[in-house]
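COURSE: Structural Biology Practicum
ASSIGNMENT: Worksheet 4, Part C
STUDENT ID: 0417
INSTRUCTIONS: Below are two proteins. For each, the amino acid sequence is given first, followed by its structure token string. Answer the questions at the end about the second protein only.

PROTEIN I
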Amino acid sequence: MPNENIFPKQLHLFTNNSTSSLSEDEFDTEFFELFSWALPGAFKSSLCFCRFEEGDTFYNTRNGYLSPWSEAVKHLTSCLQVTFPPRAVIKKGTPQAESIFESNWYGRVELDFFANDKGKLIKQKHIVTTQGGLYNFLWKNNQTIFQKKEAGVPPVTSKYIKWLMRKCSKHFSDFTQGNVYPLEIKTDKTGEKYLTLFKCDAKSIKKIIENSISNILDIKNEYMPNANELLIILHDQSNTLLASKVSSLKQEIDRKKYNCKIYYGRPDDIFDIKMVDLLPTLQFAYFFSREKGNVLYESAKKSFYKPQPDKKTDKDSFSIASHGLYIKC
């Protein structure tokens, strides 16, 4: 049996004589939908920074966390428990989360794999892999990932999405007005980098952007065809910083009682980029407005723009493009 004294997240221990489950107050019932393994909200920071630590325990079903053990074990087929690295203090949100995620990706992690044998979890093997390998396994449930070398499991990221959002925002009016526009990617160092990441040429990128704008218009026509503004911002349920941005913008809109509508979706609802893996925790928050004027723009500025109190110029340096994909319809 695993060591029952190393459960600092206070998740349900899989002891065979356990008869109680966590109460609603003790347990975050929010789960990460796209992961093959059941991951509750208690693992937000672990997913945000790609760092799993000693004592972290994963079940293949939600019942392993919420049900009394006598019932939970009937549904379990397997279980994982991390034995290394030791626990450390993890920040809940920081602008550097993405770079920390990537640097942690290749870090070492060790874990024990347990299988259910007639109601008892029996240790099958000890696995030494990378944090990214474990992340991918929890996501895709493919054990061959553990055998891959570090270079064989590249970090997943939101950088592709951010870059495409900026391109779509820049070329939206040209596309909707039927203008022919060049994407000057080949001569741009940043563009060259993303061509490599997408594994395609400038012509293919242009087609991706055109299709993405068409998809945005389809979503607009479905959810609010008479919208005057649309703002799409990133949302990640594992990243408290991104989640708080969506929350603060929603609060500002509610406070002003604007005629707006919010819709949540996945980036692949818009971007057809099968050649790269999109971060499974990533979502889009679509803000539609029927109001006259630029209420979404002004609300975003009110929510996100924090000028320095001692700045030496009155110049407004707010850029909505750094916060999301803004479209004036």
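PROTEIN II
(use this one for the questions)
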Amino acid sequence: MDDFESILENGIHFGRGGKKNDSNEEKVKTKAKKKAYITGAHGSGSAKQKAKYRTQRANRHKGKA
């Protein structure tokens, strides 16, 4: 009964479960966020193709008001 009364008085707290990630862990670094990779400047054919698609998508709605 004590649990029920404490829930009525205080409510239920739905917090973040599990333990927090420590900043001591090493994060994986990828090339995907680097500017040279996004613009295709490093020479990869697939990166150049993706950069072309990104620029097309960015310019798609620029002319419309």
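ANSWER KEY EXCERPT:
Q1: DSSP finds three helices and no strands in the chain.
Q2: The chain has a mean pLDDT of 76.
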